[in-house]
Amino acid sequence: MTSLFDAPEDDGPGTPDAGAPLAVRMRPRALDEVVGQRHLLGPRAPLRRLVESDEPMSLVLYGPPGTGKTTLAHVISLATKRQFVQLSALDSGVKEVRAVITAAKRELTYAGRRTVLFIDEVHRFSKTQQDSLLSAVEDRIVSLIAATTENPFFSVVSPLLSRSLVLALQPLSDDDIRAVLRRALTSERGLDGAVTLTEEAEDHLVRVAGGDARKALTALESGAGAAVAARTTVLDLVTLETAVAQAAVRYDRQGDQHYDVASALIKSIRGSDVDAALHYLARMVSAGEDPRFIARRLVISASEDIGMADPTALLTAVAAADAVAFIGMPEGHFPLAQAVVHLATAPKSNAVTVGIGESMADVHAGLAGPVPPGLRDAHYAGAKKLGHGKTYTYPHDHPDGVVPQQYPPDALVGKDYYRPTNRGAEARLVERLAKLRAIIRRHR
């Protein structure tokens, strides 16, 4: 058995050496070794068909960190027996791209071998840099594989997209991460049985990973090193926590605690306890909860519990959701925390919630009725003959912009659904709404 950080002898180009990180050593070398992404790699899935037929192809791989974009690029290169060249958009420019294309032309002309050009973080390339790839991709001098964590339809130029197949990678599931960890523990390329993992430690690694295989393997390697240093072959939770400097949070994303902690977060916001709200947010983030789930709950809370008492709360919550989608985690916890603070400290009103609830109840009870003739569409031929729009008064023609006019169906005339509170910005609506209703309802 090899020692903890040994790797197998080099067996070909691109094989990582013994000093390579565990995540690099465990990188799959064939499509069947790739964990997750079954929608791309199944028997009839597009990526498998392209690879197995060895067709010239250009791909844009789009997905969160650690989902296998670089891995798939390497596997494609190995499976198709093509020359593999990797560039990073962080430190490469037009000069480097042109040098690769020149070399690819030479390789194709003299050796008959095509080149796979992998560009990581292609969204960081400028439009000019991306345009420099077009002719080589068009002429199939290179097969481009571009990886990005950003939406390619916003970050990649249209001509390049039109010449490429865009494939979206999904975050790895908890079961996927477990499969990655267990393979690394036993594989000769990995830890080769040097340590075993307790169930609690494995659960913690899955939470720490948050769907990122690279993060899971990095944490496992650190924990395994700590176990060996402590002269033990069992990696338990205590040793792992010491190694990865992140305490385990008792939190089951599929169980009661998932809903209990989420409920406590929203109820703390509703109750204006900003400190408790931040605590529950921290528990969810630390446990690896899907940040999109948290953001959705905050957006709902902004309307359900705050509403017009502070209309800017919804703007903050939506901005936090957009920010999380844009920057990802872990930095995404900053805009989430900002939204929690805003929502928890904002004045509260459920008048919007009550209003739409009562309105929906009346609709479900059959209180609807025909739209008043003056409000019906009068733009199509024959509408005027039916009397549509004939009695409608255009509010902008009045100096105040408000006119007496029937808007609801007959069955709902005089019905008040929205009843503003005296809290926050909504307080200013109490008097204004009374005046508006008084003017509008004079038609009766």
- SS element count, helices: 20
Q: Widest sheet: strand order?
A: 2-3-4-1-5
CATH homologous group name of the largest domain: P-loop containing nucleotide triphosphate hydrolases
Number of domains: 4
Oligomer: single chain
Number of strands: 7
**CATH top level of the largest domain?**
Alpha Beta
CATH-scheme architecture of the largest domain: 3-Layer(aba) Sandwich
Rg for CA atoms: 30 Å
Q: What structural class should be given to the helix and strand makeup?
A: alpha/beta
Termini separation: 92 Å
Any idea of the CATH topology of the largest domain?
Answer: Rossmann fold
Summary of the model, kept short:
The chain has 4 domains: 37-168, 3-Layer(aba) Sandwich (Rossmann fold); 174-244, Helicase, Ruva Protein, domain 3 (Orthogonal Bundle), CATH 1.10.8; 256-345, Up-down Bundle (Zinc Finger, Delta Prime, domain 3), CATH 1.20.272.10; 366-443, DNA polymerase III clamp loader subunits, C-terminal domain (post-AAA+ oligomerization domain-like), CATH 1.10.3710.10. Helix 16 runs parallel beside helix 18.
